[in-house]
Amino acid sequence: KLLEQDPDLGLWFECCAKSFRLRKDHLFAEKNEQNLLTSMLNAGVEEVITACGNCFEQLNSFAADKLRITMIYDVLDGFDNVAASDGWTIHHPCFARKNTQQHAGVFRLTDQYGISLKNRNQQGHPLSCCLYNTSKAQQQRSALKQERLLTYCAHCVMSFQSDIPTRHLLQELLGSNKDWTAPGRIGLFANYR
Description:
Layout: H1 2-5, H2 18-22, H3 26-42, E1 47-50, H4 53-62, E2 68-71, H5 72-76, E3 85-91, H6 100-112, E4 115-117, H7 135-143, E5 149-151, H8 154-160, E6 166-168, H9 169-173, H10 189-192
Parallel strand pairs: 1-2, 3-4, 3-5, 5-6
């Protein structure tokens, strides 16, 4: 449906680096922000419809004067079901751990699209931040090796997929059967389907 509304629509999966900013690596974050903005502008991007709350906040902080920034969950709300899938463990990224508004938006869409979440009503969280490489984080990852992890953060997908079968919520919502490969950027939607 989105492609019908805008045939020039593309998907750009690349980490905005807010997680690095949160970890006080401001130099890397600033370099990444500039590279990301330059790449988008050079590609003719005018609007970014983001699935990631980190990206929404981060892009608004450094690119709102050059790009329109919108959350995809607002755009997709009300569309017909694409494909139902069962048995996912949801991973709320760091920025959304306590953001009940983002949880509600994600849950509304997973309900609408028939995506069942095993741990939807569970208190706590099954995984640490994807940047953590502590023994506790490794134990958490090992405990989920046989699960299917669903998240809405590009960096989390890239980080967790080596240990746990991990997909981005958009991959399920848009009915993609392709895996996400490094470096994580996916160009045009038509090439991604």
